[in-house]
Amino acid sequence: MFNSLSDRLQGTFDKLRGKGRLTEDDINVAMREIRMALLEADVNYRVVKGFVAACKEKCLTSEVMESLTPSQNVVRIVLDQLTQLLGSTESKLVLAQNRTPNVIMLVGLQGSGKTTAAAKLAYLLKRQGHSPLLAACDPHRPAAADQLATLAGEIGVGVWRGDVKDAVQVASGAIRQAVDHLNDIVIVDTAGRLQIDEEMMQEAVDIKAAVKPDQILMVVDAMAGQDVVNVVSTFAERVDFDGVIMSKLDGDARGGGALSVREVTGKPIKFVSMGEKPDSLEVFHPDRMAKRILGMGDVVGIIEQAQQVADQQQVEDAERMLREGFTMDDYLSQLQQIRKMGGLKKMIGMLPGGERMLQQAGGQMGDEQIVRIESIIRSMSKEERLKPKKINGQRRKRIAAGSGRSVQEVNQVLKQWGEMNKMMGKMRQMTGAAGMGSKKSMRQMRGMMRNMGMGGGVGGMDLSALQKMYGGKGGRKF
Amino acid sequence: MGLRDRLREGLTRSREAISEIFYMGGEVDEEFWEELEDRLVMGDMGAEVAMQVTDDLREQAAREGLRTSRQLKEALAQRIAGEFAHAERDPFRDLPSCVLFVGINGAGKTTTVGKLAGVARSEGRSCLVGGADTFRAAAIEQLQVWGERAGVEVVTRERGADPASVCYDVIERAEREGCDLVLIDTAGRLHTSPELMRELQKVVKVTRRRAGMPVSVVLVIDATTGQNGLAQAKEFNEALELDGLVVTKLDGTAKGGIAVAISHDLALPILRIGVGEGIDDLQSFDALEFSRALVGEGEGE
């Protein structure tokens, strides 16, 4: 819904085309746009003020890179500044070596996602070879302990819920339980509390005093508004947390709160939480976050998202495709992958300049096209899907009637398939028999194939080309 | 404590913040306007709305010769109040009625349903609660605890069941037993997930088709939400044709300014606001009162 910063600045600077230098006035105009972009991203007002002032200073004094246009130069400076402020990657949990069990405590407002984050963290630690125990220390919200117990059951981690109504006692009980059952890490999930609720804040302090956590993590909702500053500064003052988990980043919130938190408390963002599944706790990348805050798309994010969707099955599929050729069923499954990733629109929207592209295309670039192709493929028989070359005029007519589309559209789908199949043939020659065995080459191939599927298939979007264009120096070019 | 006092108390922090600038010497100069705009932005009103409001107020002040802080406060309250859409009908009082609660994860849907059921029960209305959040772990149990507290029965199915079927069940049961008010809790979902939004569309469709009584779909939104709140509301509205909003967690220091933007942009009335933990802290919404409390009218002269 918001234009990205780069698009906005582009508009401002279009008027200045041909100018080799920017005057202070020009920069003031640009800073105004940056201010608005940051405010729209929910960066705190005071933080914005300081940040914009610092950026302006830099713009006026820094070296101008000649290869970039004025607007690109400004954005580069802003982006660098923002990335720097967001801090380095510190997604490590600092745990005392000589202590068993280590204790991690989670705090935050109601509904920020603590319980979910606790389960995700437990899953992450379990995969790293630890044996975590989840402690359900929320006696206030009805069924909070049940929720944690269910999630713990799903990921195969132990849970301690105690039978008392006192959170402090439950927490201490969990430590004893961990000692008895050889769990090396206890994750303490606490109740959600408002920072102005004195009683509840005291409870958090008491839990902290009782279990002496190695790490206290505060869970902050990516959608949080201006008020997040008051929230985190109070929490920092009272319970003094060590780092932040940003939750609900799978939505389209810009997450400007991350910058506010960092600025106000100086605490690092350790993890970002991207969805409902237990494995969706990810490392925090300041550069990506900076781009997200400025509305510049997240190329790397898409690629990772695509990787996430791919699973073992697809590796096998890739192998089979190389052996036996590309079938209509493969085409279908690729289309479904696009849908899984949130549809074409979302993916394009995540690319730099994508929002602009969507606007230009109007309603043309809808996901309806995917649905149409799907319906056509689904109207083919099993045999036809395996050997699309068999599809003659009569069959085409039947498929068109079956899917409710025109024969021309069926032809188009067949043509697209033909192109993909041709590419697959080339690849087969390229890789030869030697590459077939190793897993690494398989993975590369899988990536290539996925890109092809999208590129050849829908709306003429070639993701691999885009990837090349933007990859590596995504921040500089847009 | 009267309703108004509670509301005021809930909004104290934000009121203080805005009031503060009216104290300063009473001088209305450039700095005053800038400060005012800043304050509105800090209340999550959004930079654009804040600018517009300030500019309008400025013009009005010049036109009508408003000079004192009292006059300006009242004018500002009126201006903000004018941004809200009005409710034609209160789906929690005008019975029979069926209300579906939707929203993102952690907005406070289940708690809101629990509280509203308690209020309905204490006011002597027959009420039935449907637990259509069959996805989140222990959501059903959470609702059942609320049901027990309120003395209201909860109709639900096991975790993982089709949420639309729960709606079907609860409405059938309500009609059979002559129940006037049906409240249905749904699973939280992000507006950016097309699959989950489609599922919700189906739930709403089934409910609308099945129910003999008027069905309202209400978006529950957290007052601490920033500018993304508008995107959420737009997506939900597009998919489900919302009938109103419930704004929760206004008792922190959050100002809930995003509610102004949502109500204005989508012409959605705010039906209830949550200003505290207690069951009675879910109150009817009065635009002018809300705006006055926000601005701090009538104090500090």
Can you walk through the features of this model?
The complex is a heterodimer of chains A (478) and B (301). Chain A has 478 residues and is of the alpha/beta class. Chain A has three domains: 5-86, SRP54, nucleotide-binding domain (Four Helix Bundle (Hemerythrin (Met), subunit A)), CATH 1.20.120; 102-288, Rossmann fold; 305-470, Signal recognition particle, SRP54 subunit, M-domain (434 Repressor (Amino-terminal Domain), Orthogonal Bundle). Chain A has helices at residues 5-14, 24-40, 45-61, 70-86, 114-127, 144-155, 167-180, 198-211, 228-238, 257-265, 286-293, 299-309, 312-324, 328-340, 343-350, 354-361, 368-378, 382-386, 393-403, 407-431, 439-457, 463-470, and strands spanning 102-108, 132-137, 158-160, 185-190, 215-221, 243-247, 269-273, 281-283. In chain A, strand 2 (132-137), helix 6 and strand 3 form a beta-alpha-beta unit. Mean pLDDT of chain A is 76; it is low at 433-438 and 452-478. With 301 residues, chain B is α/β, with parallel strands linked by helices. Chain B has two domains: 3-85, Up-down Bundle (Four Helix Bundle (Hemerythrin (Met), subunit A)), CATH 1.20.120.140; 97-284, P-loop containing nucleotide triphosphate hydrolases (Rossmann fold, 3-Layer(aba) Sandwich), CATH 3.40.50.300. In chain B, 51% of the residues lie in helices and 14% in strands. Chain B has twelve helices and eight strands. Chain B has helices spanning 3-10, 12-23, 30-42, 47-64, 69-81, 109-122, 139-150, 163-177, 194-210, 228-240, 257-266, 287-295, and strands at 97-102, 127-132, 153-156, 181-186, 215-222, 244-248, 270-274, 282-284. In chain B, helix 10 links the parallel strand 5 (215-222) and strand 6 (244-248). In chain B, helix 3 (30-42) packs antiparallel against helix 4, helix 5 packs antiparallel against helix 12 and helix 8 (163-177) runs parallel beside helix 9. Chain B starts with a helix and ends in a 6-residue tail after the last helix. In chain B, 55% of the residues are buried. Residues 297-301 of chain B have low confidence and may be disordered. At the A-B interface, helix 2, helix 6 and helix 9 of A face helix 3, helix 7 and helix 10 of B.
